């Protein structure tokens, strides 16, 4: 008997974006509409969650889960904004601060992906997008430190990767309710890319 695919969406508001699409459809709605007959999808992601919260999400995975999709890291980066706004005495001192931020994120992110590896399901990992309207070049550079961790850790576990920096590049991809969140247009793009990944996996 062939097992029907069932996708579990893990992570943050990139996948749990219903409150940011006014009179529109969220990522999970687009995904459910675009999936073939018999293919299921469960939203386990929670708006606002960080890497430390995904362990609880893993406990809520449906028993029939066959594929995992993870979007995580953006809220971890947001938590560091107060530190990033602090003055530094030199460029080297600033880089030292950034290295410590990256090291702490790496510790948490690597531990999370190790736990996800134990689930032993095909896994798609999102990077953190950086085309948010109004995002400064300095903050875009800071996000690259988090994305370096995401990419290297996902590759080490041989997880598949969706590069959101290349997918969500237009101002219309971001919500009018909150510009750091994905819009309905972005939801369609994400759902289409996830559907293709499941079909090809």
Tell me the quaternary state. single chain
Classified in CATH, the superfamily is SGNH hydrolase
Topology order in helix (H) and strand (E) letters: EHEHEHHHEHEHH
Helix content: 40-55%
* Total domain count: 1
Strand order of the largest sheet: 2-1-3-4-5
Helix segment count? 8
Tell me which CATH architecture applies here. Answer: 3-Layer(aba) Sandwich
Q: Name the beta content range.
A: 5-15%
Describe this structure in words.
The protein has one domain (6-200): SGNH hydrolase (Rossmann fold, 3-Layer(aba) Sandwich). Helix 5 runs parallel beside helix 6 (137-156). Strands 2-1-3-4-5 form a five-stranded parallel β-sheet, with helices on both faces. The mean pLDDT is 93. 46% of the residues lie in helices and 11% in strands. With 201 residues, the chain is of the alpha/beta class. The chain is globular.
List the helices and strands and how they pair.
Elements: E1 6-11, H1 27-34, E2 40-43, H2 54-58, E3 67-71, H3 74-79, H4 81-84, H5 91-119, E4 123-126, H6 137-156, E5 160-162, H7 164-167, H8 184-200
Parallel strand pairs: 1-2, 1-3, 3-4, 4-5
How would you sum up this structure in a few lines?
The chain is an alpha/beta fold.
Features:
8 helices, 201 residues, Rossmann fold, single chain, 5 strands, globular, 5-stranded parallel sheet, alpha/beta
């Amino acid at each position: 008997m062939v097992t029907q695919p069932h996708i579990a969406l893990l992570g943050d508001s990139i996948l749990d974006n219903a409150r940011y699409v006014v009179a529109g459809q969220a990522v999970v709605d687009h995904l459910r509409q675009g999936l073939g007959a018999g293919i299921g999808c469960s939203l386990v992601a929670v708006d606002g969650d960080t890497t430390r919260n995904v362990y609880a999400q893993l406990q809520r995975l449906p028993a029939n889960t066959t594929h995992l999709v993870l979007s995580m890291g953006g809220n971890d980066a947001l938590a560091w904004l107060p530190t990033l706004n602090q003055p530094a005495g030199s460029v080297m001192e600033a880089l030292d601060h950034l290295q410590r931020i990256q090291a702490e994120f790496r510790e948490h992110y690597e531990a999370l992906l190790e736990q996800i590896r134990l689930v032993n399901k095909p896994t798609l990992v999102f990077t953190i997008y950086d085309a948010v309207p109004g995002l400064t070049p300095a903050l875009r550079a800071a996000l690259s430190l988090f994305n370096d961790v995401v990419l290297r850790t996902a590759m080490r576990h041989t997880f598949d990767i969706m590069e959101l920096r290349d997918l969500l590049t237009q101002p219309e991809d971001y919500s009018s309710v909150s510009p750091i969140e994905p819009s309905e247009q972005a939801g369609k793009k994400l759902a289409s890319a996830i559907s293709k990944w499941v079909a090809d996996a």
